[in-house]
Amino acid sequence: MPEPGPHQLLIRVHAAGMNRGELLALHRRGPGTIVPLGMEAAGEVVRTGADTAPFQAGERVMGRCAAAYSEYALMDARDAMTIPESLSWTQAASLPIATMVVYDMLVGQGHLAAHEWLLVTGISSGVGVTALQLAKALDARVIGTSGSARKLRALTRQGLDVGLHTREPDFHEAVMEATQGHGANLAVNTVGGTVFSECVRSLALEGRLALVGYLDGSQESPLDLGALHARRLTVFGVSSKQLTPEQRHRLVQGVVRDVRPLWADGRLVPLIDRTFAWNELPQAVAYLESDEQLGKVVISVG
Fold first, then answer.
1. Could you report how far apart the first and last alpha carbons of the chain are, in Å?
2. What's residue 36's pLDDT?
């Protein structure tokens, strides 16, 4: 059982969310490497560090959490959020990482406004589904691409306005048709370099493009500087890897202020694809890598 530092909460983990990014990082390290996995958790505070106010023992919290696939883990109090009573442990564990990323790219940097068009490539991922849900709460209109027609049909029940069945960089014309020639005000690229140029082509005047993932493994793409210049475009990255704890805390505060009320009153409900028991972790990893899931996969630590 780890001992909390001054800014840390010791939590008894009840559930942990799975994220494809941690598996990609594990594969890059090569076979035989031992790495504590898990990036987010929901649990009960057991002990608090000296500088963790206002959190107290016994509270239900969720947040970013290293080595989350554990019975007990340490969470920086600056990353922690109290769990609304309406959410289960499993639901709460699915929220922190995806919500922080999506809040950053839609609100913090993307400035998505009501009635604007959002384009999400790879919309059936955990981040993609969360982006769809938050965008609809902001009264925006959403176009999503996916290689699965089944997933696109399911996401229409989550409010998806236009579903494009493709994994290829061939969606520009469909985006322009759906937006009556206007283009997307904000595009979220969860796929990577293979669709980057197509995202740029699909942007409206003063459009914004968020880079958040590389499911295709490609981190390189040509950039049309003429389009960037003439259409006054903005391209930005979404990552918390180099943020200080204080910078991450400002994002947490934004989520608590703007998104937590939507969870508490049921306007936003996490989409959980499947929950695995703790001793089924190898099967859970295989399932996540199969790309069959729609929404989040969660580990229940009982």
1. 16
2. 81
Domains parsed from the chain with CATH numbers: 8-97+243-300 (3.90.180.10), 110-237 (3.90.180.10)
Compute the mean pLDDT over every residue in the chain, rounded to the nearest whole number.
94
pTM score, two decimals? 0.93
pLDDT digits (tens, 9 = 90+) for 25-56: 676 676 777 778 899 999 999 999 999 999 99
